[in-house]
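Q: Please design a sequence for this.
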């Protein structure tokens, strides 16, 4: 097993170093070592909270109840998280011209905080709130969350986090950019995603169809591992990314 990981690490390092257009695709698992739990699996958020508070219809009808939970999860608990080596490593690979874009399903802003520039947020961002009436956007740090639900400074209507709730569509620009980065990728690096939420989960299959080599970092097998993954790097995101970059540096 250890030999296989070493072999896969070496191969992956060579492939990334020679890549013309590598794209990273990340999920909740990349932020686990930053202290943010995943949604599913052991210790997952949906084991503790009822996901109905993020259903658009439920939220609009029960804004105060939903906001109390949203505040606890996303603005108290998540707020202290800092990028870990997996985020930093992807930012470093972008600086070196190896990775062209990070498509993330995460809403935690940690890729940007790590220094990644071309970050495509497939599901939006929790650090921004948007008015449900006039679409005015406001940084959450400028909004008083003591009194819930927060109201729009322009029109006094209900504000929601600017990430997509269940029942909402993918932001168009993020979607178009993701398709572009997927089509153009010769290497697709998956980190910490279970591959269970559509339509984001289709992107790696599209990349594979377009000829990309699929490298996957995950401590567990995902929906992709036996289907499309070429090189499976079994382990935690921060640890494996560090090993991978060490190997690239030796080339
Ligand atoms: N390093 C890397 N991967 C990890 C780690 C770790 N330390 N710990 C767990 N994982 C893996 C798990 O094995 C799993 O495959 O991360 C994955 C997390 O899966 P999900 O919780 O399903 O997260 P994700 O794939 O991002 O979910 C997609 O679901 O609820 C929605 O919108 C939400 O964006 C989210 C989407
Ligand atoms: Zn408004």
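A: Design:
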């Amino acid at each position: 097993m250890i030999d296989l990981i070493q072999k896969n690490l070496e191969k992956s390092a060579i492939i990334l170093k020679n890549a013309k257009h590598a794209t990273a695709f990340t999920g909740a698992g990349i932020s686990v070592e930053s202290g943010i739990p995943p949604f599913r699996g052991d210790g997952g958020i949906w084991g503790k909270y009822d996901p109905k508070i993020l259903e658009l219809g439920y939220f609009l009808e029960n804004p105060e109840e939903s906001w109390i939970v949203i505040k606890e999860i996303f603005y108290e608990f998540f707020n202290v998280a800092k990028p870990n080596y997996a985020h930093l490593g992807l930012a470093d690979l972008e600086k070196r011209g190896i990775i062209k874009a990070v498509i993330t399903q995460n809403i935690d802003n940690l890729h940007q905080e790590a220094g990644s520039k071309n970050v495509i947020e497939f599901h939006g961002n929790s650090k921004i709130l948007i008015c449900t009436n006039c679409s005015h956007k406001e940084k959450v740090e400028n909004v008083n969350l003591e009194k819930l639900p927060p109201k729009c400074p322009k029109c006094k209507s209900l504000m929601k986090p600017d990430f997509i709730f269940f029942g909402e569509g993918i932001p168009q620009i993020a979607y178009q950019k993701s398709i572009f980065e997927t089509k153009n990728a010769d290497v697709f690096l998956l980190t910490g995603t279970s591959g269970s939420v559509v339509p984001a989960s289709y992107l790696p299959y599209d990349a594979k169809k377009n000829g990309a080599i699929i490298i996957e970092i995950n401590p567990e097998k995902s929906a992709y591992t036996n289907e499309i993954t070429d090189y499976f790097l079994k382990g935690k995101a921060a640890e494996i990314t560090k090993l991978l970059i060490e190997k690239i540096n030796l080339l």
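Q: Thanks. Anything notable?
A: The CA atoms of residues 93 and 224 lie 23 Å apart. The pocket of adenosine-5-diphosphoribose (ligand 1) is lined by residues 27-30, 32-33, 38-41, 44, 105, 123, 192-194, 196-197, 217-220, 222, 236-237 (CB under 6 Å).
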